[in-house]
Structures are given as structure tokens and as C-alpha cells.
Write a sequence for this structure.
């Protein structure tokens, strides 16, 4: 199962809440993210990260073994 290197809360171009994700190149993870409807994801080439809408957290939990650890840790510091 792929592992996130970085995950933080961020909005998309129109301000919808979600997560910016960085991980080592992993075709399985990329293909899984691409199965999320395009309206709920975007690739940000300048920072080499994916933004995924917050409503897709169940999918992200299935894709990345440490997604919940990132989101629970962030919640505890805010």
C-alpha cells in the first residue's frame, strides 16, 4: 500500500476544502487517484502534488496506509 510523504489541508482553485498529497511515484496510487472524478481532484505540477476534495477521504484512506495518521495528527494540533 502506498505511503504519503506529505498531506495537508488546502483548498482548490475555487476554495473547496480538501487535501494536498505528496508521495513517491507509485503507479497504483496515481491510477487510484485518477479514478476519483476529475471535479474532485487536480494535479499541481509546480509543487508536484495532488489536491483531492475532502469529501473523498474514504477513498484516500483506502489508497494510502497512513492517510488517517496525517489527518488525525493535523486535527490534534489545530
Amino acid at each position: 500500500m502506498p505511503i504519503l510523504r506529505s498531506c495537508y489541508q488546502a483548498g482548490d482553485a475555487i476554495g473547496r476544502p480538501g487535501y494536498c498529497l505528496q508521495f513517491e511515484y507509485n503507479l497504483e496510487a496515481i491510477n487510484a487517484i485518477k479514478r476519483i472524478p476529475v471535479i474532485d481532484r487536480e494535479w499541481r505540477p509546480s509543487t508536484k502534488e495532488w489536491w483531492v476534495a475532502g469529501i473523498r477521504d474514504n477513498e484516500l484512506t483506502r489508497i494510502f496506509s497512513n492517510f488517517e495518521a496525517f489527518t488525525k495528527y493535523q486535527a490534534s494540533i489545530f
Summary: DSSP finds three helices and four strands in the chain. The two ends are 28 Å apart (CA to CA). The beta strands are 4-11, 17-23, 41-44, 49-53.
